[in-house]
Task: inverse folding
């Protein structure tokens, strides 16, 4: 039964991808990309990757769509069709597709317990997590502790991406220096979205905090929570207008969040060294090594969440300020 | 008892599926923009109520039911708001509701 559903979703995924390529209206393409992400999230969920599904739904279908729409507001809605070079592109893509299809013949069957990926370190993680870290969600244990270096790298990738976007978009063009509206932007005069949005924002942020702090027990963690909280705050910015949103959370504070989250993560690592362990070794953070691991994971997840939330909001404001 | 619950939940699920299907057909086949979103709003309201109550009957008295209730509340708030915002945006961008449905004004915008 589940395989039928998975095939159905994959078929829809292919159709959506073709539609994204075919359409010349960029607005439609952005909406189709959101649908694509949502289908992808459902696919991840079918494959029992609830954490990844949550990330895909929050980032891919949620925040990215808003940022794409912000980018679209700066450019035109129609794609300029380019006829030249199509034959070459078709050739390159066909060759790559053939190579990929050939490569799939070597792939193990889906969910095969004998597959190399299930033979390497995965069994060790599954066996040792209850003993060494004592939390039910192995994904969080792997992400936060066993592969803490990788996650630190990811946080710095987010930081670098945010810095890059701000370098390109951060300074307003000279003609736009002065804000063209003094506060009365957003959807203030639209009563229904205003009321419903105001009602929902606290619950969205509460759900984000739940995802943040429940990451040890269920799917969730810093990346998802940061994206969800950012969505709630972007909704606030859309409803109340750019100026009001920046008044409640100034741009400098957002930048502080981006840098501070990455810093918090690094400091947890350094604290491990200071207390006589290795970098990012949380066992020494408390008397009981298991307790120390849990404290460390909680702290680094907070750092991840703060960085992701700050980065997404900074990028959103950078786009919104250019309108 | 469980058989009755099963039957009831399947009836609700199938009815919900029917509403979503009708909403989908309506969104494709209706003559202009406003009638289309009217059809699609069936999916938001009736479809989601029936389907989620159907799943709740399957879940029984558990935490999952509470979560489903929260999801239902969220959908019932956001769905109609999204439909309203869509219609409002269309109206503001100058698309006049056309009672006769003869002129296909949305063709130009689609």
Result:
């Amino acid at each position: 039964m589940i395989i039928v559903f998975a095939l159905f979703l994959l078929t829809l995924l292919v159709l959506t991808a073709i539609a994204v390529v075919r359409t010349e209206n960029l607005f439609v393409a952005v909406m189709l990309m959101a649908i694509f992400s949502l289908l992808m999230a459902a696919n991840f969920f079918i494959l029992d990757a609830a954490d990844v599904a949550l990330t895909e739904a929050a980032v891919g279908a949620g925040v990215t769509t808003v940022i794409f729409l912000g980018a679209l507001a700066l450019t035109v809605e129609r794609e300029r069709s380019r006829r030249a070079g199509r034959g070459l592109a078709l050739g390159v893509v066909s060759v790559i597709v053939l190579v990929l299809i050939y490569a799939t013949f070597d792939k193990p069957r889906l969910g095969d317990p004998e597959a190399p990926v299930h033979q390497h370190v995965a069994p060790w993680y599954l066996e040792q997590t209850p003993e060494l870290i004592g939390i039910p969600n192995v994904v969080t244990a792997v992400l936060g502790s066993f592969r803490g270096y990788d996650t630190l790298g990811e946080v710095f990738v987010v930081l670098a991406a945010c810095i890059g976007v701000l370098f390109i978009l951060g300074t307003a063009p000279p003609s736009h220096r002065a804000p063209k509206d003094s506060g009365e932007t957003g959807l203030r005069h639209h009563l229904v979205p205003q009321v419903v949005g105001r009602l929902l924002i606290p619950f969205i942020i509460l759900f984000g905090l739940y995802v943040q702090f429940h990451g040890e027990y269920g799917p969730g963690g810093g990346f998802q929570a940061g994206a969800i909280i950012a969505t709630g705050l972007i909704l606030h910015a859309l409803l109340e207008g750019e100026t009001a949103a920046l008044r409640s959370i100034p741009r400098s504070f957002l930048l502080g969040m981006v840098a501070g989250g990455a810093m918090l993560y690094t400091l947890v690592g350094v604290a491990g060294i200071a207390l006589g362990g290795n970098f990012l070794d949380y066992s020494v953070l408390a008397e009981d090594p298991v307790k120390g691991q849990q404290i460390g994971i909680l702290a680094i997840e907070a750092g991840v969440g703060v960085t992701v939330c700050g980065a997404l909001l900074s990028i959103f404001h950078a786009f919104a300020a250019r309108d | 008892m469980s058989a009755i619950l099963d039957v009831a939940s399947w009836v609700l699920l199938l009815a919900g599926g029917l509403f979503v299907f009708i909403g989908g057909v309506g969104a494709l086949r209706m003559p202009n923009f406003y009638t289309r979103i009217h059809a699609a709003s069936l999916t938001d309201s009736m479809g989601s109520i029936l389907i989620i109550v159907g799943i709740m009957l399957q879940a029984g008295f558990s935490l999952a039911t509470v979560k489903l209730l929260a999801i239902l509340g969220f959908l019932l708030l956001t769905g109609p708001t999204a439909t309203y915002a869509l219609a409002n945006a269309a109206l503001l961008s100058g698309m006049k509701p056309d009672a006769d449905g003869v002129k296909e004004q949305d063709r130009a915008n689609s």
